[in-house]
Q: What sequence folds into this?
């Protein structure tokens, strides 16, 4: 019997994941979605082979075994708390918000739920996790470069009066911990939180963020110094046309994780 999947958020990420499920993934079936504008979501499903109900965020769990969360970080608990309290599997993209709501992990443990964080727009989280087990990690550093438009409106920039308009050269707009980066750039660097959780934690993981008018992609470079290995990785993600703050790879990463949950052959740790 196919596992039922409900998706919270029907934007740049959620719609792509829903379309993939509607086209067909063996062992999985789209059961429900949630959206800020229900009518618009229903209209967007007009071409689906099997349109599904649009339900409130806090009721997604009722229709599903797996709940995919891809909404603004402030709505994380509305989806996560009831889903985990009822033993569902939660796939969350608001990894940054998870750092300040880590009691959800304890709730999952108590009620038989699970929290899964996709690799998203990063690369090499498997290697970071392995290095953390292989004798310890001394340092993890990530340098992110984004087109200025992909950072506009970030709370950290607004609160500190930092403008990224009209730049003609790269500008470093943040340097600090992954925890601080996740709070200051909730729509931009969930990757920082994912990296921190995979390795040495949000307070020891160092992050730099640059607004760079010379790039058209989201660039993340990771540098790791560990007992088991020293390595660096870089990925350049194409921004989504619908939302320039989100890379196209993010939705594909969610689909890959869902496939892995039901596949008889799974690659990677």
A:
């Amino acid at each position: 019997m196919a596992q039922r999947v409900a998706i919270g958020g029907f934007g740049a990420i959620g719609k792509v994941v829903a379309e993939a499920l509607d086209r067909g993934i063996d062992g999985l079936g789209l059961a429900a979605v949630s959206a800020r504008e229900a009518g618009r979501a229903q209209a967007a499903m007009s071409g689906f082979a099997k349109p599904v109900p649009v339900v409130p965020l806090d009721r997604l769990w009722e229709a599903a075994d797996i709940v995919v969360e891809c909404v603004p970080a402030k709505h994380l608990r509305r989806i996560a708390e009831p889903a985990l309290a009822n033993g569902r599997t939660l796939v969350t993209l608001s990894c940054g918000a998870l750092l300040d709501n880590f009691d959800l992990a304890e709730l999952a443990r108590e009620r038989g739920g699970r929290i899964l964080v996709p690799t998203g727009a990063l690369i090499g989280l498997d290697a970071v996790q392995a290095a953390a087990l292989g004798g310890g990690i001394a340092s993890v550093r990530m340098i992110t470069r984004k087109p200025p438009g992909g950072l506009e409106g970030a709370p950290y920039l607004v609160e500190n009066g930092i403008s990224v308009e009209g730049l003609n050269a790269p500008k470093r707009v943040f340097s600090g911990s992954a925890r601080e980066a996740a709070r200051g750039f909730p729509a931009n660097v969930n990757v920082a939180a994912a990296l921190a959780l995979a390795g040495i934690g949000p307070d020891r993981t160092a992050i730099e963020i640059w607004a760079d008018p010379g790039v058209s992609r989201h660039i993340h470079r990771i540098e790791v110094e560990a007992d088991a290995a020293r390595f660096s990785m870089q990925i350049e993600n194409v921004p989504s046309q619908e939302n320039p703050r989100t890379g196209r790879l993010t939705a594909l990463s969610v689909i890959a994780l869902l496939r892995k949950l039901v596949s008889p052959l799974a690659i990677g740790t």
